[in-house]
UniProtKB/TrEMBL annotation:
SUPFAM superfamilies: Formyltransferase. N(1)-(5-phospho-beta-D-ribosyl)glycinamide binds at residues 12-14. Pathway: Purine metabolism; IMP biosynthesis via de novo pathway; N(2)-formyl-N(1)-(5-phospho-D-ribosyl)glycinamide from N(1)-(5-phospho-D-ribosyl)glycinamide (10-formyl THF route): step 1/1. The record marks 144 as: Raises pKa of active site His. Keywords: Purine biosynthesis, Transferase. The keyword Transferase applies. One of its GO terms (biological process) is 'de novo' IMP biosynthetic process. The gene is purN. The keyword Cytoplasm does not apply. Catalyzes the transfer of a formyl group from 10-formyltetrahydrofolate to 5-phospho-ribosyl-glycinamide (GAR), producing 5-phospho-ribosyl-N-formylglycinamide (FGAR) and tetrahydrofolate. Belongs to the GART family. Residues 4-181 form the Formyl transferase N-terminal domain. GO terms for molecular function: phosphoribosylglycinamide formyltransferase activity. This is Phosphoribosylglycinamide formyltransferase.
Length: 203
């Protein structure tokens, strides 16, 4: 059974999808804790499903590294097999990433490497592409630059607003994340292999 800590910053729709999937006795993963960097509305889902939660607010610390160290302490006390950033909107400090990699994954609302960063949907619309999508990737020390695990395309429709497109992306994102976790739990996706295949020769 794969044990997971999920990190969120907002409404927690991806978290809810994982929690609902894990209620199935046949699903080979369980969420052991939910963490946030703010008083996120999505923490209500953790309470609803009886999952412990914790909050580590960056403004309570002298610098980002100190915040990251405390976040890591909170995560590691649960000894998770996997940490999932599901709408977690802060760049994680290098020490945090190094401690957990490659068992640290993120979802992103674009087909990386296209449109990294916090405004991926807006950027896709501004560029005029006819297709964007969702990526689940391993977190590295860059911004949305880690090895890609799975992707799924989402068409950009004529007249799409940022909200409309993002809502369609979120629907796909929830399904893709649940499937990725299932595949990791069943070893159909091997994180260490993806890390090796994306390594720079000689590194």
């Amino acid at each position: 059974m794969l044990s997971i800590v999920v990190l969120i910053s907002g409404g927690g729709s991806n978290l809810r999808a994982l929690l609902e999937a894990s209620t199935d006795a046949e699903f080979p993963a369980r969420i052991v804790a939910v963490g946030s960097d703010t008083d996120a509305p999505g923490l209500a889902y953790a309470e609803q499903f009886g999952v412990p939660s914790f909050t580590v607010v960056p403004t309570a610390f002298a610098d980002r590294a100190s915040w990251g160290d405390e976040l890591l302490t909170q995560v590691e006390q649960w000894s998770p097999d996997l940490v999932v950033c599901a709408g977690f909107m802060r760049i994680l400090p290098p020490r945090f990433v190094r401690a957990l990699s490659p068992n640290l994954i993120n979802t992103h609302p674009a087909l990386l490497p296209a449109f990294p960063g916090a405004h991926a949907v807006r950027d896709a619309l501004a560029t005029g592409v006819t297709e964007t999508g969702v990526t689940v990737h391993i977190v590295d020390e860059g911004v949305d630059t880690g090895p890609v695990l799975v992707q799924q395309a989402v068409p950009v429709l004529p007249g799409d607003s940022e909200h409309d497109l993002h809502e369609r992306i979120k629907t796909v994102e929830r399904e893709l994340l649940v499937q990725a976790v299932l595949d990791i739990a069943n070893t159909h996706l091997t994180l260490t292999d993806h890390l090796k295949s994306n390594a720079t020769p000689g590194s």
